[in-house]
UniProtKB/TrEMBL annotation:
Annotated keywords: Kinase, Transferase
One family name in Pfam for this protein: PK_Tyr_Ser-Thr
Protein kinase domain location: 10-254
Keyword Transferase found: yes
Protein's recorded name: Kinase-like protein
Any one GO molecular function term: protein serine/threonine kinase activity
Signal peptide: none
Domain of life: Eukaryota
Length: 254
């Protein structure tokens, strides 16, 4: 077994996350996290992620992304999302989360994805497990280690419940995954939860998707993402902004 190379000044006691290509340690002294490759075999994925964050930073980045704070050892230093993962938060606090808050997260995720696509990046693994919450409960899209930059192949295996039947290197594949992610945020579970990858793949290839009518307007948007209604994530944003919930609609994205 390959020995883990911990970031400078950090060790196993600082570990807060483990992914396909790397692991994440919390640097308590700076209030940031360091993402490092598991081993040399995964160096390239982390280098791609660093290149993607640099591309974002060249354009001023986006409030829906974790702030990139530069390289650290063989990895990269990022903003620490102090409320951790969106999936965990929804699963643990689902009954207390308002519809307005869920809609706000949906809008933030779609708005961020529109920015990501405008910079030549296809995320490839958009799902609630790769979205984080900062101290103000804003959604932050993360984990670009397996993403496509300027048309290069994805390095990540796309989750079945989010996998488009079409080309995975097009923005439309991310928009399909966005539909599944909005479903997760709204319903608290993944599409076709409990079914096998093959069963889900077969259903999607037949254009058979989970029922969303009971979700109201956001359900129509989710189905629209799955059925190819939207050419851009920006169009999804506009439709989410148009939703009127009881009370008042979200006044701003972030």
């Amino acid at each position: 077994m390959t020995q883990i190379k911990w970031p400078p000044g950090l060790n196993k006691d600082d570990l807060v996350g483990w992914g396909n290509f790397g692991f994440v340690c919390l640097d308590s002294s700076s209030g940031t996290v360091v993402k490092s490759p598991h081993d040399e075999e995964h160096d390239e994925a982390i280098r791609i992620e660093m290149a993607i964050y640099k591309r974002f930073e060249e354009s001023g980045s986006h409030p829906g992304l974790l702030r990139y704070l530069g390289p650290c050892g063989s990895g990269l230093r990022l903003e620490f999302a102090s409320n951790y993962g969106l999936r965990k938060h929804i699963q643990e606090n689902g009954d207390e989360i308002t519809g307005d808050q869920r809609l706000r997260w949906c809008l933030q995720i779609a708005d961020t994805l529109a920015f990501v696509h405008s910079k030549g990046v296809v995320h490839g693994d958009l799902q609630w497990a790769n979205i984080f919450l900062d101290g103000n409960m804003n959604a932050k899209v993360g984990d670009f280690a397996g993403s496509s930059l300027d048309g290069h192949p994805l390095m990540v295996r796309v989750t079945a419940s989010h996998r488009s039947p079409g080309s995975l290197l097009l923005a439309q594949a991310d928009i399909f995954a966005l539909g599944s992610t909005l479903f997760e945020v709204t319903c608290g579970q993944s599409p076709y939860d409990g079914q096998t990858d093959k069963e889900i793949k077969d259903l999607f290839e037949k254009s058979l998707f989970p029922e969303t009518k009971h979700l109201g307007p956001i359900g129509n948007i989710i189905t629209g993402c799955w059925k190819g209604k939207y050419k851009t994530a920006y169009e999804v944003c506009q439709d989410i902004k148009a939703i009127q919930l009881p009370g008042k609609p979200p006044s701003s994205t972030f």
